[in-house]
Amino acid sequence: MEPTTGKLKYLFYLDILGFKDLINEKSPEDLYTTIDKCLDIFYTWESFNELFSTLYFSDTIIFYQTSEEYKQVSFLDIYGIAGQIYSKLLSEGIPVRGAITYGEFTVKLDSNGRNNIYFGGAFIEAVDLEKNVNWVGIIISRSAYIGIDKKIFDAFIRENVFEKREDGCLLLNPFYQIRASCFDVNAYEAAGETFLDELKAVKYLLSKEKEFSLKAPCKEYSKYANTVAFIKRVMKDGLYEWTLKMVNRLVPDT
What we know:
254 residues; Alpha-Beta Plaits; 2 domains; 7-stranded mixed β-sheet; two-stranded antiparallel ribbon; 10 helices; globular
């Protein structure tokens, strides 16, 4: 198996959407609470998986690999963690968009030990990818999955874990628990936190699409409409309709 190295790392770049509006609409204390909530989710995953660490600046959070590991293992880790972070944040009403890349990324304290200096090709690629997709989701670069076992990768495509674009990039379907619980009549009663987070995330996306449809045409509407269209494409063979039934069972305050 191909290992990662000290120079080549997996990186998950996340952008908190509508940050300018948050600054204008929220008090400094409320904005602090929102950011703190986001970071706490990342720190929780750091404690679960010690291969990764977190950087933060303004509306940007970077979750990056810090220790050497087999590339395939790291890929499985980062896309799985990214999906759960995405669902958790949307369930809290915090819209985000992200990108996963693989490549050179340097993080080092300055000579005074006060600030992290970070740079590298993986970071530049992630920024470019994230900014150029008009949706609310996570895109994965070709660099991230090249070298992954073809049988495993093909299975992911068949199972709608990813949707492959014409340019080779992948759009991540983050709703793992929904897919795993498909058509289970007891799924809602036995629901764990992750399953409920995914349902809340879907509910959030649908409500935002409906809200902005009343103001269409506008960029915000197309962003959410594109995301909902993606969900419908990857939730095949009745899964989308089943998911709507589960979403409708959420009580109003969830």
